[in-house]
Amino acid sequence: MCHVIVTCRSMLWTLLSIVVAFAELIAFMSADWLIGKAKPSSSEDVDNRTGRLQEPYHPTLGIYGRCTRISHMQFSRRDTLCGPYAENFSEIASGFWQATAIFLAMGIMILCTVAFVSVFTMCVQSIMKKSIFNVCGLLQGIAGLFLILGLILYPAGWGCQKAISYCGPYASAYKLGDCSLGWAFYTAIGGTVLTFICAVFSAQAEIATSSDKVQEEIEEGKNLICLL
Predict the structure, then answer these.
(1) Angstrom distance (rounded) from CA 112 to CA 19
(2) Strand, helix or coil at 171?
(3) Which are the contacts of 125, defined by CB distance < 8 A and separation ≥ 6?
(4) What is the pLDDT of residue 145?
(5) What sign does the dihedral 31-97-183-159 (CA atoms) show?
(6) Which 3-state string (H, E, C) describes 102-164?
(7) Helix residue ranges, H only, the chain
(8) Does 72 have pLDDT greater than 50?
């Protein structure tokens, strides 16, 4: 018989696992890893409402995507265009970024799998006499290692020609040049830290769902067990 067991710690671990997976996925897909040097203003950058020059635009560059501003000569305005600059994996600007993409993708796939499985831990707590929480915690630890490898390799690619075109001639491996780090990079770092927190916290979720109070309520014949 399936017993639905919901505790404060198990629910927190589930929600945190889902948040971490989505945060890493959004960061990976974003083009805001590097913020390039400002493009100088021109006569086309005049704000039609105020008649003043708009602030200089900072193009952004991701692992495989970029955002830049394109002009519409007919309408005398500019729009921001975001999309992949690489049509396939081999066109990613740097071999280090290719390795980063592989490691991050592997870590994110594991995190998404754990996030999906975590939803069902309310009803199924073990498989083949092994705790799902412990297995998921181990997988999250492995995913965290993949994410760390990807984040360490990413700055090594700052010397590629694509990065130099955004960050200036002084950009090189582990040197930003005229660029600055975007929110996607910081989100990926934060998600990596939370991944290891999830891995450790999975043990607490296991303890909470197998406590004496839970066992007592199961013995009383309850199918839905909610404990703080």
Answers:
(1) 10
(2) coil
(3) 5, 131, 132, 133, 206, 209, 210
(4) 97
(5) negative
(6) HHHHHHHHHHHHHHHHHHHCCCCCEECCEEHHHHHHHHHHHHHHHHHHHHHHHHHHHHCHHHH
(7) 8-29, 95-120, 132-153, 161-167, 183-209, 212-219
(8) no
Instruction: Please check whether the domain covering 4-33+93-225 is classified as CATH 3.40.50.360.
Output: no
Q: For position 163, what pLDDT does the model report?
A: 92
For 98-120, the pLDDT digits (tens) are 999 999 999 999 999 999 998 88
Compute how many other C-beta atoms are within 10 angstroms of the C-beta atom of residue 120: 11
Separation in Å, CA 193 to CA 16, 186, 199, 228? 12, 11, 10, 26
Cα–Cα dist 226/10, whole Å: 11
The 10s digit of each residue's pLDDT in 192-201 is 999 999 999 9
Q: Output the CA–CA distances (angstroms, integers) from residue 87 to 4, 93, 205, in the order listed.
A: 46, 11, 43
Q: What is the pLDDT of residue 39?
A: 67
Distance CA 175, CA 172 (A): 5
* Tokens coding 49: 């409402």
Q: Are 202 and 101 in contact (CB under 8 A)?
A: no
Across the chain, mean pLDDT equals 83
Predicted TM-score (pTM) of this structure: 0.84
Q: Could you tell me the residue ranges of all domains in the chain?
A: 4-33+93-225
* pLDDT above 90 as % of the chain: 50
Q: How far apart are CA 57 and CA 82, in angstroms?
A: 14
DSSP state of 37: P
The pLDDT confidence band at residue 144, using thresholds 50, 70 and 90, is: very high
